[in-house]
Queue: 4 jobs
Job 1
Amino acid sequence: MIQHQFCTDILNRIDNLLAEGKEITIAIDGNSGSGKSTLAHDLSKIYDCNVFHMDDFFLRPEQKTVKRIQEVGGNVDYERFKHEVLDKLKKNQEFKYQIYDCSQGRLTDYIKVSPKGLNIVEGVYSMHPTLRHYYDLKIFLCIDAETQSQRILERSGKYMLQRFLNEWIPLENEYFSKIRISEICDLVITCS
């Protein structure tokens, strides 16, 4: 099921946190193509949990000001994610949030969330400085550039690979290095 290196360590850490009897939230951040969504999906087959995707919280077109785009980690709507998801998880009651559809450039469907003992946040920018203190376990997945390009090409095609290489990956790398994401994580896993 889980094909990630150190999967036993991930499961042990989650099990130990759950054994404490409190609701926990974990974050999985890392390079595009490193397996964040796959790991979250695999964990959801093992645990009864909620999974949240940072891709559902990218900036809407009207939010993409020059100042905001120049902010390290600023191309995700971390304020909305904090308000609509992380703050509400702490209340331990049902809530809903709206997802952003990049292809339509607007907010679309609502997702209803019921309280669960485990909540997983996956995606680049999930450990933005305004969000990271919400997490009980922080995991960083990294991947070498060649494997990353191959995975993105297979998943998204040539056109999107060029967009990743020219636009999104440089922004992600700046976020990882300037905010030192891997250094604040509990686990750093190199994917192959």
Job 2
Amino acid sequence: RMEWALSPRALYRIARSLVAARAFKRWTPRMLTEFDRVACFGAQDVAWLNAHGVRDCRYFPTPVIDPLGDDWAERRRRHPRPAKPRLLMGGHLKGLPTIAGLHCFADEMLPALEARLGADGFEVHLVGRNTGFDRLPPGLARKLDRPSVKFRGYVEDITPEFLAADALLVPTPINFANRVRINVAFSYAA
């Protein structure tokens, strides 16, 4: 069960987003049919555009760099390990997938982790822009006010975060495109 405290301003933003999404679905195929070729980073987007009359629309996998190179295993082995298992989560708290994922994490994953590892037997580091505890909806903030959850905010270099992490958590309770952060985590062998 998600708890939402919506202000009139938030309701307006949601309504505006829904109108924009409807317009996007109507106008995007019309605009793209003027082009000889179209490329997308989401296979589901290509399928949708092809079904809506966009010709020669092709899928290209999201480009992800190899940040560690051939010595990735040695770099991970040499990197200082935290005392407790560390899980990494990333996102922007203005993003609907991130908020929905945090609700899923707080309601389902966090209690299971605490039951298995103890309330302070692990750490979850939340990194990304606008990831301050004070920016969460109040009900969600109460659920995440645990010793194991660390709100880190924006970090300049993500490499040490991935190298120190035992796993990346990407709770995705809604169907929302591909999650590039999963591809990035694989590039760090996380």
Job 3
Amino acid sequence: GDVYKRQAFFHGADSFRPHEKAPARHLVIPVFYRLLYCCGLRPAEARLLKKENVDLVRGSVYVVESKGHKDRVVAVADDLLQIMRSYSTLISEIYPDSDYFFPRYDGDGPYTKRWTEEMFWRCFSMAGITAFEGPKPRVYDFRHTFATECICRWMREGRDIDAMLPFLSAYMGHARYEDTLYYCLLYTSDAADEARS
């Protein structure tokens, strides 16, 4: 199922080795995709993230002028924060002068959208997954997964979803509340499909 594929994906992400033309690729890939999955960032927000906007002491990421020109602060969970701290130490030794938290292989600027998509498929491939039922996954799906898993967790905990959704909306940087409600509809639809099968 989806959980197995996600575990396999991250196993693939963790399997990269140092490469002479991309000396930090094996460090970047596991952290980049975990940040998408754990914090629900848009892929471009993670790609363009500057070092100065990552607070490794407080455990937060400052997302500058993303979609809709809205800035926001995203909290990072402790386990991911530990990974990001170790990563930052190692990456700074390789690219001390880069402004980017995920510096491109030459250290001069951010990675491209195409690179994030190519490495996404490489992670699956390295995990031995080459076939998918239904629609093919996309890098952006990490954001969808983050939102639906938040809602699912709140439902299990018996929380008031209507009261919690504005927090999720602000965290994800949605300009309109309706954009967050979409994930509720998505989750309800998935749950109904599972109940029928």
Job 4
Amino acid sequence: MLELVESVVEVEDDEEVDWISCFPETQTNMESLVFDCVEVPINFEALEGLVARSPRLKKLRLNQFVSMAQLYRLLLRAPQLTHLGTGSFSATEAGVVGDQEPDYAAAFEACRSLVCLSGFREIWADYLPAIYPVCANLTSLNLSYADINTDQLKSVICHCHKLQIFWVCVVAL
């Protein structure tokens, strides 16, 4: 288990931090990898490799430097996840594979064990329907970082039949 909570990693000028590539190149027994608080870019190829070598990984919380397209690739590598912190949930120039965008809903749907979903920094509301396939099994949903309106919020929670914990920040005008 590696959980970097309230950690400070000092780098200069959005330099990529390559601590993930320090893990052994063999299969791991890692069950939890949390680095949502680390405010620097990471080596995505090393992260993807680590996730692929971690069949027991259940909890993955990403920082905002992991793009939606990268999240898609990680979901394909780790359908066994039970807890996911999405990192960025917005369009990026790297989001298109070939001539078409990845099927985010299918990637989420493959994660049948997902019960806890959080993150949603830099959210793009057009991607919200991608999480609908997992909403029915969610017991915990944290949208406290999400900048969404009431109708978008309703469109998500109406699919959440088992929800026990729900986080949202309300901004009063």
